[in-house]
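Many introductory courses stop at the sequence. We go one step further.
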Amino acid sequence: MSTHSPHSTTAPPPGHDEHAGHHPDAADHPPETRRPWTVLALMLAAQVMVVLDVSVVNVALPSIATDLHLSSSSYQWLISAYVLLSGGFLLLGGRVADLFDRRRVFLTGLTLFTAGSLTAGFADTALTLIASRGAQGAGAALLTPAAMSIVMATYSGRQRATALAMWGTVASMGIAAGVLFGGILTTAFDWRAVFFINVPIGVAVAAGVLVKVRLAPTRAAGRRQLDVSGAVLLVTGLLTLVYAVESTTSHGWTAPHTLVAAGLAAILMTGFVANERKVESPIVPPATWRIRSLVSASTVMAGVTGAVVGAIFLSSLYLQQVLGSSALITGLQFLPLAAFITVSAAAASKALPHVGAKKLIAVGLVIATAGALVLSFVDSDPSYLSDVLPGFALLGLGVGPMFVAISVAAMSDVAPEQSGLASGLMMTGHEIGAALGVAALTAVAGDLTTAAGITSGSHHAFLAVAIGLVALLIPTFLLPAHDPDHTPAGHGHGHGH
């Protein structure tokens, strides 16, 4: 999900592992020096908030809709605003964390995220809530790379390996834990609690960081090397694209409203491409786009994440509005999906050296497609055990191996010194895929404000998921047959350390 899903264990965000070894404060302690785990605990506490907030609103959606009179399009913007801004600014956030003081960047991101959470908790209109979600996402884009950079600079040797494994575990549990946590908070208090809970955590983490994390010397001439124009063009282009997709629901595919938004999105994205060729330090160096394995794997990552996050978004509405599950029960009903993803990912890690990433992805796509087809056949009088659970099982069994294998396939032609940037690009694909997936499936589903609309909409949307997963076989076939020698089997975060 990210969704920060199991793939998020791949590698540190942009540019971190290639710099971490020679950060000034990393050199202050010899490799054998053990450092207290306090800094890791603080960074993980912040990252848990970021990861949970991708999916924590899913279960709260019906309650929010009742209070704030949401339309179908507002539903998807509550998810999309967060993942679009976190994904769109992630590469810039990684660059900022490399060029400036990591602690200051982390605290800036944390403050923005916490303030966004507080505003979201008090929101009394859909627009305020969506804008607050966007602020949370922008904060996450600064916070996450800086947190990873602090972890890499603080720990070394075996401690660093343990820290990265812990980081990966937090990422893996993200989606399902968010849905469950959202269900518990919404049931015990109300939907506003899913946002307010971040405020005391954010304040406590900030206080801890001020005491425990030292300032690092600022790198010179950093300001001139930031491609802010590229990041702004990318984010505004993506927001406009999602708006164009969403407006097909209310205005139709050929309405002037939709066509103007689509045209503007095309102009902004073209501007982004032109900008990247012209600036001195582009967000993504042009040569990166020529690495076929990375581009193909990132495309598959975006598609798979879009399918999974979209499926969770639709299913959480279906379980509550059609099956009548409470918010807490809905959270619990997602646990089998998380379990199947986790177990199949672990099995895939063992099988990877023998089978290869390309075959694992292809098999995973076929199994996940079967899961989407099962979910497309649920009707207005369903049972969770006989109709929904088998679909969740197949979806999870297909998705788990893909997240492991995509991480490895992406790195097969990437030099170790480029691994930070490459993983950052893949994480960006993950976030943007989530936003576009939710927007596209909402457009396909149509009216999600009534039980009848959700039932017929889910049928069409899950069919679209199945077709989309089959289409991902095309970029999968473009992946190289070999896996990288420098990546330990089953671990995406081995390169570059």
